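Weekly structure sync - notes
Attendees: PM, LS, DV (DV joined late)
Agenda: review two folding runs queued last week.

Item 1: First target. Sequence and structure tokens pasted below for the record.
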Amino acid sequence: MEQLLERINELAKKSKEQGLTPEEQEERARLRQEYLARFRQNFATMLDHTVIMQPDGTKTPVKRKDSTQH
């Protein structure tokens, strides 16, 4: 993921300095989507392993909200 972020940052810097070719713009968009997908997956995994400590000492796992209730 670090290499992915490095390349995104390289393209961002180049974009500010001299602009990007259409191919580089496509690459940047694809890399951003891949980064976001990985970030969301990592975050979901972290939440899956998170528990809430109740005042009485019991631990309650965090539950996912039903995605159909938006």
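Item 2: Second target, run right after the first with the same settings.
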Amino acid sequence: MTTKTKPIDTLRDGSLKATIWKNQSEKGGFYSVEFSRTYKDGESFKDSHSFSGAELLRISRLAEIAYTEITIHRAKDRGEPDPTEQAE
């Protein structure tokens, strides 16, 4: 029986997505991000992994947000406080 892993987060900007995955290796956990663009083909939805020039800035913004989210998850993995919260 195979267990399907779910992403830890999916960030969206219209039809663009950044899907964040946590993976395990013999060295421990690590994170990866998959970027895609959802489109409709007839009655079904599909994902593409190519982007137009006009979409690149939106992809870069999703990458920046994904980086921040992964930074937060890594801190939690180490038992540290959220690095994006300001100390009082």
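Discussion on item 2: The beta strands are 9-13, 16-25, 28-41, 44-48.
Action: LS to circulate a short write-up before next sync.
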